[in-house]
Amino acid sequence: MACEYLNDVKDGKDYSFPEEESEILAFWEKINAFEEQNKRNEGNPEYSFYDGPPFATGLPHYGHILAGTIKDVVTRYACSTGHHVQRRFGWDCHGLPVEYEIDQALNIKSKDDVLKMGIDKYNEECRSIVMRYSKEWETIVTRMGRWIDFENDYKTLDPSYMESVWWVFKELDKKGLVYRGFKVMPYSTTCNTPLSNFEAGLNYKTVSDPAVMPSFPLKGDPDGAAMVAWTTTPWTLPSNLALCVHPEFDYVKVKDPETGKVYIVAEGRLSSLPNALPVKGKKGKPDKPGFEVLAKMKGAALKGMEYEPLFGYYGAMTGKAFKVCNDKYVTDDSGTGVVHQAPAFGEDDYRVCIEHGIIDKGGDLPCPVDANGCFEANVTDFAGRYVKEADKDIIAHLKADGRMVSIGSVAHNYPFCWRSDTPLIYKAVPSWFVSVTTIKEQLLANNLKTRWVPQYVQEKRFHNWLESAHDWAVSRTRFWGTPLPVWMSDDMQEKIFVGSIEELERLTGEKVTDLHRHFIDHLTIPSQRGPEFGVLKRVEDVFDCWFESGSMPYAQSHYPFENKERFEQTFPADFVAEGLDQTRGWFYTLMVLSTALFDKPAFKNLICNGLVLAENGKKMSKRLKNYPDPMEVVSKYGADALRLYLINSPVVRADPLFFKEAGVFGVVKDIFLPWYNAYRFLVQNTQRMAAENGKPVELAQVDLGKVTNVLDRWILAAAVTMTKEVEVEMEAYKLYNVVPRLLTFIERLTNIYVRYNRKRLKGSGGPEDTLMALGTLYHVMMTLCKVMAPCTPFFTEHMYQNLRRCSPDAPASVHWTRYPTPPADAATDLRLQESVARMNKARSPETASALLLRLLHPLPPSPRAFY
Q: Is 622 considered catalytic here?
């Protein structure tokens, strides 16, 4: 195929980036560009990439677009360096986000409402909405220029995916990492389910809560002293079973001279009691003497003392409960140094009460609050009341009984449900756990085997999260999710973990086509102890959706049932990327499960992006309309401009970005238009020479080894340097260093090379010199297209399609080309680059011209000039 004439180009003011991008999309579809790229790289080294699954119940926002752009840049680059990259889109289909929408739509208020409706009907309602916006997602992702496989996507609701999740759980049980127990967990009373600790951390708010000091009279104290505790959760007081003090703190018994009442608090917290400290009188008013100290003792001396309960609801536990305990978790930086213990509603409370024999591990746990957060019948004074709403009445009740020392309020951070936006409570629930604490040291070691960009997120935020990790409650008392594959006898003495569909069919004798609850809950397994022991039934829980997404490396490939060899060759993944919030989410669950299963991290390299906020620094809000619609921005300026704006911002360093539409316009004005004008100048002058010669100009055949012009030498050397530097930074996943180097090169190309070379490019130096100048600019433009293609896939394709007419053997798409690799000894002429840089910094045109004249005498050709 011979060299062809270049096509005409539009004037800059007539060029529409969005319109041209639409044409490129049509071109890619016509030539099956994405599929063909994959075919061309088949058999090449694999580059493994995991795409975290979003929910399809809402439309993509700037956070999704940002993460998707980062993923696209890195995987396109991997393809250009000769790797085969499987890029499958995934969907998170289960869990609270889906159930919450259905609950709202169908006015479902409780678990009983679901059971009346039928789990089968409820789950099918959930199934009907999970892919509601999948087409919109595909349209937006494709319009942004991201190449990813939607046809071969994975869904967490697919039976094959769910079966692999079962395999993961059974493997964890084999390793002794699964147990069932009570755990005080963040609990959503709206969604009727416990949340993981990282879910609870997603939505903290500053709220004002009651801050009260109830009194607990000690039995048999000669002074009638009462312990005084402090709490911001009065609703937990009906469940009080013990008090806790620090064994090494000093405590004082003090007497109020006005009322004669005697209290015991930590000495360092005496000031927290009303009127406890002496006050000097003002303007003739008498001094207030403060409380009289009757005695002083260590917290250890208080251990075992009994007190009068606040309420009689658990009077039957007198003798075992209502005692003072010792534990070093008690602090003296707030409150009274005395902590009331309600073991059903506090993690430390539960532990302390177990250790002191107030309650029995594995035994019944007094918990008078139901799944909806309402008091049960045994709390007779407040039965049926929502706990947070009962605070005021509980306070009034205790005040009337003379048991309230102080009533106030406090502003503090409090966790809210990330889906329903209602306050969480902490509540003991039966749950299935992965023993993360058992593998903590392995987690910390595996974290060191990964590369995070930026590094400080790995070394500080993620390391600290791993170091303080608790056991992971992976079960949810919900309906729409992958069911826990555990069948248990009624006496809880026999249980079977099922790891596959085939195993379930063998154990039950039934054919299984789907693994959701309404397909398998009725299946029973005969007891292995004999017919008299009946059958094993499945526990009701489903998996936390974070467990499902954390299983993605295995489940997307239906491992180990299929694709075993390929998975083992490509695990861990070479690359993952998501937002900063995933340090407590997907990044964490990936690391936990891969460490537990294989003692390996799930990924080798990770880019962590920051949050995209509204221009005023606030969270983007549809209700407030404080940000422009992403697709409107794309329709104005093009996807490439938005991509470049995002990846050239602080957000790729995990810092926040205050999104400004003017910034996207600035990318078009300051980067794309000068770049386009340089391309247009090349095309027009090549067309002029072709018209003069009566034939196409073979720019690709120009021998750049014979270059003598100093600016030609300089721009070629600068291109070599830029290409090498970008390669180094891309291999290090430092996009924040990549884009500035590219933009600096574009600025030098347009503002130095083309600006000072215009006359030569127009033919002032004669045909041979003009051809050399045009050939140099052509080569540099083609190089830039290939290097910039991962960042700006549309514009580089647009230019490449015209420029490749001079290169008959060039691939049909810039995205099928290889990343430019200069020879090891390619000239970089660093001194020359420095000289031209100094020239460009000259303060006046006259000075710049003088420096330029000094540089413009011909140089001898380089023995291995360029590539």
A: yes
Catalytic residue, chosen from 137, 472, 487, 546, is 546
Is the previous residue joined to 863 through a cis bond, with omega within 30 degrees of 0?
no
Catalytic: which of 328, 564, 622, 841?
Answer: 622
The helix-helix angle for 630-637 and 17-31 (nearest 10°) equals 100
pLDDT along the chain (867 residues), means of 10: 81 89 97 96 95 85 93 97 95 88 86 91 94 90 96 95 98 95 87 76 90 96 96 96 97 93 95 78 62 95 97 93 96 94 94 92 83 94 96 96 94 87 90 92 97 94 91 90 96 93 97 97 94 92 94 96 94 95 92 98 96 87 81 95 94 91 93 94 92 88 85 89 94 94 92 89 88 94 97 97 92 96 68 63 51 49 42
- Which tokens belong to 100? 């919450």
- CA 177 vs. chain centroid, Å, equals 25
Whether 675 is catalytic is no
Domains, the chain, in order of start with CATH, read: 204-280+290-415 (3.90.740.10), 661-855 (1.10.730.10)
Chain length of the chain: 867
Looking at residue 99, its amino acid is: E
* Residues ≥6 apart with Cβ < 8 Å to 448: none
CA distance linking residue 663 with residue 642, whole number of Å: 9
Q: Is 53 among the catalytic positions?
A: yes
DSSP state of 59: -
Q: How, if at all, do strands 425-434 and 178-188 pair?
A: antiparallel
- CA-nearest of 569, 580, 641 to 613 is 580
Specify whether 285 is catalytic: no
Q: Provide the token pair at 512.
A: 């299984």
Q: Give which of 352, 434, 353, 426 is closest to 180, Cα–Cα.
A: 434
The neighbouring-strand residues paired with 298 are 250
Distance of CA 109 to the CA centre of its chain: 30
Is residue 192 within 8 Å of residue 103, measured between CB atoms?
A: no
Q: Measured between alpha carbons, how far is 404 from 228 in angstroms, rounded to an integer?
A: 9
